[in-house]
From TrEMBL:
Keyword Manganese assigned: no
Keyword set, alphabetical order: Membrane, Transmembrane, Transmembrane helix
Locations listed in the record: Membrane
GO cellular component: membrane
Species of provenance: Periophthalmus magnuspinnatus
Segments forming domain Receptor ligand binding region: 64-347
The protein's name in its UniProt record: Receptor ligand binding region domain-containing protein
Length: 427
């Protein structure tokens, strides 16, 4: 078993920024991960392929083959919708593992190890928690979770990649006419930031709107301007910033030129997964050295790497804790047994209100008593209310869905007219 292993990375212009944010620490952190007290396993800095430009289908072959020809044992990198199929074909044919922090995909390719957890079930859990049945679903075709296909919801789907300024305004005009304001935005952080800026510019960040951001980096997004209008904002957070390892890493990035986002944390964990897998292979004295032309994509026909199965199994069996929480993979190479925090944007700043995992589903952790400054609009929320039905003050409005109507006097000394409010409640 060699004392050093070759790794490689593949970058795309639209995705390389999230990868480079983590490259400052990735390989320096694990280049001396000890296999034992006497012999370290070295993970040298990866040979980076030049960023791929469109059309990727014609330019991807050479960069990928160049990595294989260098004798790499595994590849860590990013893909998009245009390149994912070709990358899967290469790895499946040559039995070379591809470890990726990119958006999860459905694939039968066992050589793809997906670091990013699936968000779809957690998103459905939050929608059910808020009892939404009607909402607008804005998505990007690159990463959308297709939440609109679930249950008996009435969903207006909008592809943000084809959305014009006019269609954007029409979405909110229709919502205002129906007096609705429930919106899900499902896309990567860069595109999400642009959409939120449009929302603020159009003044659609008022209390009458409730946004669910289907993105795993709630704390990575600047929500300062969106908060000023009082809009209700819910999202998801994968990285637990209170964990000691995360805090140390964040400090290191704070003094560097880049800010660590959840995509960088996933890449960081990807290298940790690779280091752990190869450590385990070495402890088991499994010989993974290449022989002949195995793994060469220019061979005719392509020659699969016989030891690729051993590496794939070692990667899939890794069980560690990383920056993104507990890391474990199922038989398809997808993340399992993970926890996602549910966040809300309070006037005092982001706060955790619950979490979701595969066993418990959605669990609320927020206290029912909010701080003095944490005032929220009544719209788009369901409250737990304890009261007594009194004919002069409250009445049952319907048998199928309870409503409560109350009246109170404000500033009686000024003789102002009574104000009326209505909000949904659960007994």
């Amino acid at each position: 078993f060699s004392s050093s292993l070759s790794s490689s990375s593949l970058l795309l212009p639209s995705l390389s920024s999230s990868f480079s944010s983590s490259s400052l620490l990735l390989f320096s952190s694990f280049s001396s991960s000890p296999l034992s007290s006497s012999s370290p396993l070295l993970l040298p800095p990866p040979p980076l392929s030049p960023p791929l430009s469109p059309p990727p289908s014609s330019l991807l072959f050479s960069p990928v083959c160049s990595q294989f020809s260098k004798g790499v044992y595994a590849i860590i990198g990013l893909y998009d919708r245009k390149t994912v199929n070709m990358l899967m074909s290469f790895c499946g044919a040559l039995h070379v593992c591809f470890v990726t922090p990119s958006f999860p995909i459905e694939t039968a390719n066992q050589f793809v190890i997906q670091l990013r957890p699936e968000l779809q079930d957690a998103l459905v859990g939050v929608i059910d928690h808020y009892r939404w049945t009607k909402f607008v679903y804005m998505y990007s075709s690159d990463s959308g979770t297709s939440a609109e296909s679930h249950k008996n919801w009435l969903v207006t789907s909008v592809n943000v990649e084809t959305m014009t300024e006019a269609s954007f305004l029409k979405v909110f005009q229709d919502l205002d006419k129906r007096k609705e304001g429930q919106i899900i935005i499902d896309c990567e952080t860069d595109r999400l930031t642009g959409i939120l800026k449009k929302i603020v510019d159009q003044g659609k960040n008022a209390k009458s709107y409730h946004y669910i951001l289907a993105n795993l980096g709630f704390l990575d997004i600047d929500l300062t301007d969106l908060r000023k209008g009082g809009a209700n904002i819910t999202g998801f957070q994968l990285v637990n910033n209170s964990e000691p390892e995360v805090m140390i890493t964040l400090i290191l990035f704070y003094y560097g030129p880049c800010r660590l986002q959840y995509t960088g944390a996933l890449t960081y964990d990807g290298v940790k997964v690779m280091a752990t897998a190869f450590q385990n292979l070495r402890k088991q004295r499994i010989d993974i050295s290449r022989r002949g032309n195995a793994g060469e994509c220019l061979a005719n026909p392509p020659a699969p790497w016989g030891q690729g199965i051993d590496i794939q199994r070692a990667l899939q069996q890794v069980r560690i804790d990383g920056l993104t929480g507990h890391i474990q993979f199922n038989e398809k190479g997808r993340r399992t047994n993970y926890t996602v925090s549910i966040m809300e944007l309070a006037p005092s700043g982001p706060k955790k209100v619950g979490y979701w995992n595969e066993d418990e589903k959605y669990v609320t952790t927020a206290s029912s008593i909010r701080g003095i400054n944490d005032t929220y609009g009544l719209q788009n929320r369901t409250y737990i209310v304890t009261t007594i039905l009194v004919s002069l003050c409250y009445r049952r409005k319907s048998t199928s869905r309870l409503k409560i109507e109350g009246q109170w006097d404000e500033r009686r000394e000024k003789g102002e007219k009574n104000r009326v409010t209505a909000f949904g409640f659960v007994l």
